[in-house]
Amino acid sequence: MTTDDDSAPFGRSLCAMVTPFTGSGALDLDGAQRLADRLVARGCDGLVLSGTTGESPTTTDAEKAALVTAVREAVGDRAALVAGVGTADTRHTVELARAAEKAGADGLLVVAPYYSRPPQDALEAHFREVADASGLPVMLYDIPGRTGTRIEPDTVVRLAAHPRIVAVKDCAYDLLGTQKVLSRTGLAYYAGCDEQILPLYAIGAAGYVSTVANAVPELFRAVLDAFDAGDTGRAALLQRRAVPLVESMMAAGLPGTVTAKALLGALGLPAGPVRAPLRSADRETTAGLLAAHGELAADAGQSQA
Description:
The chain is α/β, with parallel strands linked by helices. It is built from 13 helices and 8 strands. It has helices at residues 29-41, 61-75, 90-103, 120-132, 144-147, 153-159, 175-184, 197-202, 219-228, 232-241, 243-250, 256-266, 283-304, and strands at 13-16, 46-49, 80-84, 107-111, 138-142, 165-170, 188-191, 207-210. It has an 8-stranded parallel barrel, surrounded by 5 helices. It is globular. 51% of the residues are buried.
């Protein structure tokens, strides 16, 4: 389900959902359905499946399609489903895009091809070919820290002319570049780094794609709601309150996938282990995550009292 709002085609509050596995490492579709239902019930109007947090490099094509089908069954039309289909191979990405559409996705998340580091003209051609391959709207995923390749603002501006390229997940840490694109296109920008959710929203972003939302789906939804209500002071306060948990999950030297699964597991929620070469968080890290989560919950309780 995509929304009727062109400014937020996949909703405002999206979670980059983990892909739950069983103890033996198999895909846990029942767990995925339960987690997805919880996320939507607590404020997410969109879910990104098989993204970075969803361990897309280590799930098979069949698992990716099965995940979309299962989550669609669980959430129905209550949330937009955006399927991560980006790979280092244009042909493979096209195949995944078509499979995601067939499985019931509402949109595609397409990361810049990694490792090969194509020049900008080749990058542009890649995105156009993928966008032409299905009828689904596309969210470009700009995360040069992982891919080694920036989708330069001028390239994004040119790609915005494609009728199915409608959004960007922004993990480039380039505020000026983001503003250049926002001022020249109608693309919907989604903050892909949790610490930048309010700053980007304040300059016109559509919303966010959050890893931290796996554990606290209502957290950043409240930030946006306060900002939209004109209470910018409360929005800033809520964003700042999130800092200890965001730092523990996203800036502690471990991938967000590892920390999100550790915290979810400690809270008794579907997650399971990560797949190699990633390794599960140790007890000390998990204890720190639980402490940060508990501190945030206590702050929320005090503010409501």
